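Ex. 9. Protein: Angiopoietin-1.
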Amino acid sequence: MLSSRGFVLLLIGVVTFSSNAARYYSPCQGDSYSNTWPAPCIDGNHPFGDGWLLVQQRVDETGNFYRSWTDYKSKFGQGDNFWVGLDAIHRAVSSGTYELIVEMVGEYGEYRFARYTNFLIGNETESYALKELGQYSGTAGDGLVTHKGAVFSTYDRDRDQNANQNCAVGLKGGWWFARSCMDRSVQSCNLNGKLAEQGGTLYWRVRRGSESLKYVRMMIREAE
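Predicted structure tokens for Angiopoietin-1:
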């Protein structure tokens, strides 16, 4: 397990865990939210460049992501495992065009990433609906495509499209759930569930198959 100061480094093709990984993390520079973003930023020798605002990170089982609507609206977590808050995400991405990168390591140790050119969510009145994704590129496959248009749902505010099940309860975390909570036949994902070691409801699924995830993080940056 990493120390509270040690963040996972997810490098293209190589996964390195280091106690001095904080060199990748610093106050935000060159972004509209550099003084107010409530989480670390990536400003350093990262393969995808500088200026990334960390939205979410999961590196071990110590973080509890089975949380209420109020918790997901605001920030929760500490150290290596955190969620920055839907309000903060909305304020950032609604101020301009923001790209999203999801980095992940599967239960068998393979690193993958998914990149989207125009990540946009609505405000609380709109239940933080996932409005736009833009163009996909990467090595993970487009696991978010079926979630576009979905609203955010938690165990205490069931707003998913499944009339027979509360997806947040079944998958142990809040997310933009599509019509089916966990349909193995479609592209889908849930990045706020349980890690592979905890039962594997945190996953990224594409047509060629899927596996539970051991590590994941989401980050956004204003498009150039």
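Check your answer against this statement. Residues 1-24 have pLDDT under 50 and may be disordered.
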